[in-house]
Amino acid sequence: MKKSILLFAVALGLLTACNPIKEEKGFNVTNISTDKLLEGATFTQYNAIYDEAGNITGYEEASDGNFIKFNIPSVQSLTIFAKKPDGSEQILLTGKSGGMFNYVPMRGSDPNQTIYFRFVNQNGEEVVASKDFVFQVAADLATEVKLLVSDDGTKVWKWNVNAPDGRVWGNMGSGAGGTYNGADLAFKGGTWWGVTSEEEFLTQGDHCSDGFIGDESMDATMVFCEDGTITCYDADGKQIRKGNFKVTDWNPTAESGKIGTLNTDAGSILWPYEINSGGNKPTWFEIAYLSPSRLILCYPDKGEWNYDGSGWTEGTFWQFYSETDVKGVLTDNDNATWTWDDEDGKQCWGNGGYTGFAYGGASSLTGNSWWGVASDGLAEQISNYGYGLDDGAGATMTFTSDGLITKSSGGKGAFSYDVNNKDDVGGYKEGKTWGRFMTTGDGVLFPVRINAGTTTDEFDIVYFDDNHFVLCYPNYPKGGDNANWMEGTFWRFKKVSK
Q1: Is the dihedral of CA 197, 431, 295, 187 positive or negative?
Q2: How far apart, in whole angstroms, are the C-alpha atoms of residue 227 and residue 193?
Q3: I need a labelling partner for 282 at 20 to 30 A (CA). Which of 26, 162, 274, 300 fits?
Q4: What was the pLDDT predicted at 7?
Q5: pTM to 2 decimal places
Q6: DSSP per residue, 203-223
């Protein structure tokens, strides 16, 4: 599945195309010396046409299309770019004076956008012209839908092997009236019994009315899309289930019991069976907990909790997590502030075996390190490395949904990520990380590589959840003089506001 293409196709599907537009003049320039740059230029906007697999099969003209065919006869080559919220450039195309480029503004943003065209004269003078376009922009999503599908419009969920006691499916109790605390289920546990591995799932055949078809694997995935579909895949990426969903009764402030209802076609989610029911597949589930990285579903025995006040009753639970919604976790889909994670005096910056961190997942929250300091030891390190910002104890960084970072030390920058690029930074190609994290400007808190003494603006994503974010970087390329050490720097952060 080509996520970027599918994502774009879904976004365009929600919008209505208008009549085509072709323009040849009337450009505004940012500098009087650039008035000839776009003279005689032509632009035509298009939407892409996709097949069922998400492949582009053609284009159709549209006045607000996100694909722009252009010809600029006054030059042989130039650079085309948009500007990000922090003022930095998003390069759309370079080295051509004709062809096609694609630009999709951020969800919910103004459809009126300015595109810039830069040419460098032979004398080294840089000239920049600009033109305004109207683009298709995906509408903002309801809060509960965005949590399920992310701001990108599609989101991958897996069994939450890091749930309390590792239990991902099983039974739980509820007080009279179906009362339970979803946050407790998420972070403290409280289930009665559950399976923790594929091997244990394989002993539950009496609950499995479809037979073992792949969703018993801990590497099976479940993809929610903003078009209201759920598609499940086995560990090899083969589709095994598909259905539709919608959320009703959303009430995130509920202190006990459900905060909403997930309605689905029967058998749409991973292992969609009510426990002790002979394989019944419910068509609705109570949402017990939902965040950018966690989803807990419950279903009461035979569809109804005990409401007569006589005591506890049984229900089925499902525990899922997502390792793809980096922006949602970092920003809470708005903004969120983070600081050093040195709870109980643990190390928040230091070194360790690189592969231990890169492939450690949740274990890298506390382990896999050789040496490190808590935040109260960072001042010495900042001084030793001659770093110019006070990013030590008590320092914070705030991430915003438009991709910006602001540090309490005065540093500013921006961030981006690529969860599809799991190749490790520095030449390692095992592909077991959670993706790449990139920054510009001053970056994250104290982005200095231990022993190397230089800062970095690219990291391996090691692990994240609602309240933790762990990054690492190898100090030496694979095969280098120090490859036998496989040393890496780690950074551990925790959320301090939501």
Answers
A1: positive
A2: 35
A3: 162
A4: 34
A5: 0.81
A6: T-GGG-TT---STTSTT-EEE
